[in-house]
Amino acid sequence: MIRINIATLFPEMCEAFLSESIIGRARKAGAVEIGCRNIRTYTLDKHRRVDDKPFGGGTGMVMQAQPVYDCVMSIISDLGEGAKPRLIYMSPQGRTLTQEVVKELAAEDDLIILCGHYEGIDQRVLDELGFEEISVGDYVVTGGELPALMLTDAVCRLQEGVLPNEDAYSKESHYNGLLEHPQYTRPEEWRGRRVPEVLLSGHHENIRKWQEEMSLKVTREKRPEMLERL
Ligand SMILES: C[S@@+](CC[C@H](N)C(=O)[O-])C[C@H]1O[C@@H](n2cnc3c(N)ncnc32)[C@H](O)[C@@H]1O
Q1: Do 134 and 101 meet the contact criterion of CB atoms below 8 Å apart?
Q2: pLDDT for residue 54
Q3: Which of 12, 24, 104, 211 has the maximum number of C-beta atoms within 10 A of its C-beta?
Q4: Strand ranges, E, within the chain
């Protein structure tokens, strides 16, 4: 079972998401283990500060190395002997998160995901611990919590016992380099729009063929460059 630890200044923000729905149920069922560790717990500052002004000037604050280091080291120690966690810093400067990266990370036993805030984190602690950087895209958000939750969610979906079966994720967009076919539910007709007849036919082979054709069609229309990568 994969263990994921998120090091953050806002553990409640992460817990709020991770306690709900599919991931919340997967945690309760023991299919995944996820912990949120408050970096502030580890500050040695008497005012519990975890950030300071950047050297060289500039707006915003930078998270200090010491509390981040002690937090991550404490997580590593709690993982027990022999654990070799992959250390990931959520950063707009990192490798872009794709389904391929998700598959790679989903095969690990332990992930420690570090969330920056404000202007980011003192570079020295990232270098000292050898963090790799992963980005959710070429834009900047205020903190690493949402990116960390996206990564955690995507990785957890691929773990055994989280979704009902492998089809639930392996037939979805991106898993095999294509987008998924359109989906429909009841009623059969809504505002004059009918569900494609083949889906009502009960003919499994024809349905499978239709889904395959539609998957190619929507990929060609929405993301033609994905077909070139196949
Ligand atoms: C405002 S950002 C800091 C941006 C940093 N000063 C820079 O220009 O590269 C604060 C934190 O949000 C997180 N973050 C922001 N955008 C992100 C992205 N696209 N992917 C992953 N994490 C991101 C990082 O953890 C970062 O330390």
Answers
A1: yes
A2: 97
A3: 211
A4: 3-8, 33-38, 51-52, 62-63, 86-96, 110-115, 132-135, 189-190, 193-194
Expressed in angstroms and rounded, the spacing between residue 173 Cα and the centre of ligand 1 is 26
For residue range 14-58, what is the model confidence (pLDDT) as tens digits? 999 999 999 999 999 999 999 999 999 999 999 999 999 999 999
Degrees to nearest 5, angle at CA 163 with 100 and 194: 95
Pick the CATH number of 3-157 from 3.40.309.10, 3.40.1160.10, 3.90.550.10, 3.40.1280.10: 3.40.1280.10
Do the Cβ atoms of 212 and 204 come closer than 8 Å? no
* pLDDT tens digit sequence for 81-122: 999 999 999 999 999 999 999 999 999 999 999 999 999 999
Tokens representing 29? 């069922």
Ligand 1 centroid to Cα of residue 213, in Å, is 39
**Which residues lie closer than 8 Å to 193 by C-beta, 6 or more apart?**
none
| Whether residue 144 has its Cβ less than 6 Å from ligand 1 | yes
Tell me, using a 6 A CB cutoff, whether residue 120 lines ligand 1. Answer: yes
